[in-house]
Amino acid sequence: MSGLKPEDMPMPDAATPSRPKLVTACVLLIGDEVLSGRTRDANLSYIAKHLNQIGVQVREARVIPDIESVIVDTVNEVRARYDYVFTTGGIGPTHDDITADSIAKAFGVAIGHHPQAMAILEAHYAETGGEFTEARKRMARIPDGATLIANPLSKAPGFQLGNVFVMAGVPMVMQVMLDSLTGRLEGGATMQSRTVSAQIGEGTIAQKLGELQQRHPDIGIGSYPYYRGKTFGTSLVMRGTDPAALDRVADEAAALIRAFGAEPVVGEPG
Amino acid sequence: MSGLKPEDMPMPDAATPSRPKLVTACVLLIGDEVLSGRTRDANLSYIAKHLNQIGVQVREARVIPDIESVIVDTVNEVRARYDYVFTTGGIGPTHDDITADSIAKAFGVAIGHHPQAMAILEAHYAETGGEFTEARKRMARIPDGATLIANPLSKAPGFQLGNVFVMAGVPMVMQVMLDSLTGRLEGGATMQSRTVSAQIGEGTIAQKLGELQQRHPDIGIGSYPYYRGKTFGTSLVMRGTDPAALDRVADEAAALIRAFGAEPVVGEPG
């Protein structure tokens, strides 16, 4: 809940060298199982934290069903809008895994069995004694022009096509795929944060907090109520790209809390 | 990951009385804290399961930042596309809570202090001894024409405007608000599911499973690999509106698994 407006967002613009370049991303979680509530998504927060460490900011996420037309339209909309798009889900061997074909359709390219992906899977099943069935060969279907994303864990690769990175839905597989991408992504400024918490109500400090935000438009200040059994309070999260400015605003936030008679703690409430 | 295509989806159409009416929803999770990875969303799966019980299917979810223009554009896009829209987050007393004002802007209506909301909050702070500050009065700002959504827990209400339902982001508050809506929502067919799991690889059964899906186009069959320490397997989830058809497909799925020498269990793996 930062106070950043679109017009305040630092843009990648050579004419404003004093503002750090922000690199943006959209995450698409593809799968009926997340929409039905069967599976609680575990990927978005991991991806968001990981990407921020390498200077890529997730600015939107969508959960969409396994319907080809929806995947095609959504991918084409968001790949034009963000620097990077990361998808999870739908690249397994079964009939309901339609992400690779949908991405090919979105880009208007053909799709077929990728020689390197076939070799990886063939070696894997030879080693484990499993049969390399037609269904498993589906996992080597990669859109023309895509480059593979390594999967050291279960072998079946993801792929990158343009600025779209297609990964598995199983969290531990997704995580090794994301790890392997670090060198391929060009990050910009890293968003850093400071958190100050206190046993005080949001409504008590809201007015002064709004004034603090107005004095520091380059720092996004979010206010998050928390409940811990019978105690409650507020965590203030300062986000921005300038560490010194963040420290200053965090100090001011702590002073603001003290002025209302509460004791600020650095970080999340204990 | 069902095999349902848009053209297969039962549509609310009087000319096809044999197909049950599907009522659709989109969930908007509003908040920088979810996008930054600070907070792992706990609301989507709860909302999806709760709504399905009353015959409303979540077909899409989006996580968007606290930026007015993004909220306005997204709300206007999805309220035209789905029967219902449910938002969470951004209705507190601080400067970063901009959901109510953004919804008013999306609908092109004015916003002000709602008399009933003011009375509820005034009574609450009189009872608890808290000061009813200007900031706390912000929580009574409701777009013109909206009706309130009760909040028995922390009093500050949500609201409904048209087909958009605006709720709190704190899960336990969101949940009581959602509970209070049951009578106001007109549900259609309830999507039911059957789950059959076994210690067998997806790739082993994929071919036969695809054939099973083709024989039963009205039932969406999803295949989800799972890992439990050193064991792994597959959960098959059948979803549809006809309980008898679901039972038949679940029986066929169990038989399919047995034909490969594995033992199916009803439900998620133990």
Give the largest interface pair and sizes: A-B, 78 and 78 residues
How much strand of chain A?
15-25%
Classify the secondary structure makeup of chain A into a structural class: alpha/beta
Say what the CATH topology of the largest domain in chain A is: Molybdenum Cofactor Biosythetic Enzyme, Chain A
Shape of chain A: elongated
What is the number of domains of chain A? 2
Largest sheet of chain A, order of strands side by side? 2-1-3-8-7-6
- CATH architect. name of the largest domain in chain A: 3-Layer(aba) Sandwich
CATH class identity of the largest domain in chain A = Alpha Beta
Helical region count of chain A?
9
Total number of strands of chain A: 12
Distance between the termini of chain A: 22 Å
Fill in the keyword field for this structure:
four-stranded antiparallel beta sheet; homodimer; 12 strands; disordered N terminus; 9 helices; Alpha-Beta Plaits; alpha/beta; six-stranded mixed beta sheet; Molybdenum Cofactor Biosythetic Enzyme, Chain A; 270 residues; 2 domains
How would you characterize this protein structure?
Two copies of one chain form a homodimer. Chain A is built from nine helices and twelve strands. With 270 residues, the first copy, chain A, is an alpha/beta fold. A six-stranded mixed beta sheet of chain A has the order 2-1-3-8-7-6, with helices on both faces. Chain A has a four-stranded antiparallel beta sheet with strand order 10-11-9-12. In chain A, strand 6 (147-149) and strand 7 form a beta hairpin. The two termini of chain A are 22 Å apart. Mean pLDDT of chain A is 92; it is low at 1-17. The interface between A and B is large, with 78 and 78 residues. Strand 2 of chain A pairs antiparallel with strand 2 of chain B.
